[in-house]
Amino acid sequence: MNAFEALAPIVIHIEAELERVFTAEGAPVPTLTGNMLIVPEIGAVWFELQDGTNTLTWVTADMEMRAAWGETLVIATSREEALTYDESN
Predict the structure, then answer these.
(1) Is the per-residue pLDDT at 19 higher than 90?
(2) Taking residues 2-24, what's their average pLDDT?
(3) In this structure, are residues 73 and 57 in contact, taking their beta carbons and an 8 Å threshold?
(4) In Å, what is the CA distance from 65 to each residue of 2, 16, 28, 62?
(5) pTM score, two decimals?
(6) What is the spatial distance between Cα 64 and Cα 19, in angstroms, rounded to a whole number?
(7) How confident is the prediction for the chain on average, in pLDDT?
(8) Cα separation of 4 and 24, whole Å?
(9) In sequence order, what DSSP letters do the residues of the chain get, joined into one string?
(10) Contacts for 83-86: CB closer than 8 Å, 24+ residues apart
(11) What is the C-alpha to C-alpha distance for residues 63 and 67, in angstroms, rounded to an integer?
(12) pLDDT band for position 87 (50/70/90)?
């Protein structure tokens, strides 16, 4: 299995969850920019998001136990937060 095949189900899951959550809130759904941040120390792959105001954030589905109750995604507001998420949260 190559890297694309391994990441494709994660990307599909994240896109579906973003659509579900933001649509329920009546907000525009952010899009994945294609940038990724791999943090092997915590076993997470973060994906960069961009919303309608060009604000960039990071999202991962690799730390479901850290997500809000009933949710599967974790959001970091900066690259630095994503890099240190496991230590700081």
Answers:
(1) yes
(2) 87
(3) no
(4) 27, 19, 26, 9
(5) 0.80
(6) 17
(7) 84
(8) 30
(9) --HHHHHHHHHHHHHHHHHHHHHHTT-PPPEEEEEEEEETTTTEEEEEEE-TT--EEEEESS-GGGSPTT---EEESSHHHHHTHHHH-
(10) 83/37, 83/39, 85/39, 85/42, 85/44, 86/39, 86/41, 86/42, 86/44
(11) 7
(12) low
Domains of the chain, residue spans:
3-88
Output the pLDDT for position 74.
Answer: 87
Q: CA-to-CA distance for 15 and 6, rounded, in angstroms?
A: 16
Which amino acid is it at 1? M
Task: Tell me the residue type at 78.
Answer: S
Residues 6+ apart with CB under 8 A from 27: none
Average pLDDT over residues 19-41: 89
